[in-house]
Amino acid sequence: MPAPLLLRLAGGLSAGLLSMSPAGAAPAAAPGQVPDTIAQRAAACTTCHGKEGRATNQGYFPRIAGKPAGYLYNQLVNFREGRRHYPLMTYLVEHLSDAYLMEIAQHFASLDLPYPPPQTSGAPAAQLEHGRRLVQQGDPARQLPACVACHGNALTGVKPSIPGLLGVPRDYLNGQLGAWKNAQRRAHAPDCMAKIASQLTPEDIAAVSTWLSSQPVPADAKPVAALPQALPVACGGVGAQ
User: Fold this and answer.
1) What is the pLDDT of residues 180-204, one digit of tens each?
2) Is 99 found in the same domain as 129?
């Protein structure tokens, strides 16, 4: 994105987030004024993440509606503190408090909205099988846990802080796995995803993102309350599962 456009967009978005105090502190809006609610202020996020944060299954920007609040909060903090890198996100959150970031996270986590149909179709059968095997079974020979072992059997995420993997754009999945592999994205230590991604080949990443983006999202896509077993690896920032 060209720098002047980025600055103009950032300026417009930041006005929605920074010009108003957290919800509950301001008086009711007078007729003709924009209401001071968290939904109104968080509308700045929908410029990139789509109406109500539901995004689409195309392009790069991920869906944030319905993701666990702890996960959304952690990512906002990671952008603010430099563990994740995207200039516009950093610009938006660099001066926001922990409490305000949690308020934003809880707002989007509370939204229960339908998902679009699968993005990917017609992928090679061998690639799909490779991806399915890694997602559902992992690779014990390489000490790679299955994705379902952490993200839930239905891959819809786990409260409070593990995201779902279905309904996410393939390009975004590729980009984030690549960012972890190349140390461009980090999380709270111990960074389990960095450890896992470092062992993935480019073919593994393409297969996993292709299989995940070809799967329909179940009707009940809410994150589950808990995993049936302990996490296979230690992960910082996810709390006790």
Assistant:
1) 999 999 999 999 999 999 999 999 9
2) no
